[in-house]
């Protein structure tokens, strides 16, 4: 399940290290702003409209079908003649890539309650490893064979994900029958009546906006003098970032023992530190150290926030994940767009300031969430 989650989520980020290559190929400078933004908005749309189906349909079949739909969308992207078609394909790729988030709540169903955090951490390790290593793959392949080759290569990988999940997952049907309309209405009710969910989602949206701000601009930053590095070098940063991924299972176990709130605050603080490193130490060494700290902070906060929301309503796992992840990826899309704007107007200094301010807001929200959580426990007692 960890491998399949990584195979699915990787598709959202193939474009980031090769934006410069895509700009040159399509002769359109708007690619660097529009393609990552449209991909993440597609992902947010898929989370909102497709992810709730996990509480309605047989989960294994749904996962297999989404992987196959992803393969078709990737072929569409590979054959896109221009920016408009590629933007539409990017939305579809993003929407179908939410198959990774169909797998995560299924993990919590199969895991023992006392080991839920560790199970989420293990699967999220695979998911984030896929995200980070996708940049490595895309950077190397695009520098050798062009950006279209990356999408042609990703399509059979998505088919392999469908085959893998069909072979290893158990069939699982929801315990209660529910219509799609009622399913979508219940999303609004959950959002209104669960302040902890709203704060967790807003916190992660700010952190993911900061995370996306860095990865959207990295290839453009590396191409600048004195670094003068290409797409392959940007992709290699994905390998560097996997150092932070190793912390996901540890974060899950910490959340099981001590509760998620302190781990979320630690993640936000780590991301603030990462941007301080980026700003104060802007050479290659500073970028390497900063990206390890940034990915560490993002990952431990994400695992802990998911641990928190899944405990609210165990029977609504897919819907809770829908609201949480949709909010998070809207934040990521905004972060990508704002970082492209900051880069074009103020350069790396503007991106650094933007990236640092976002986790400060997340830290404030996480500290407030700790007070809400204590109040909730006291009222339940």
From TrEMBL:
Keyword Zinc (UniProt): no
Keywords: Membrane, Transmembrane, Transmembrane helix
Domain Major facilitator superfamily (MFS) profile: 1-373
Membrane-crossing segments per the record: 31-50, 62-80, 118-137, 149-169, 205-223, 229-251, 322-342, 348-367
Leader sequence segment: none
UniProt KW S-adenosyl-L-methionine keyword: no
CDD domains: MFS_NepI_like (cd17324)
Protein name: MFS transporter
Stored Pfam families: MFS_1
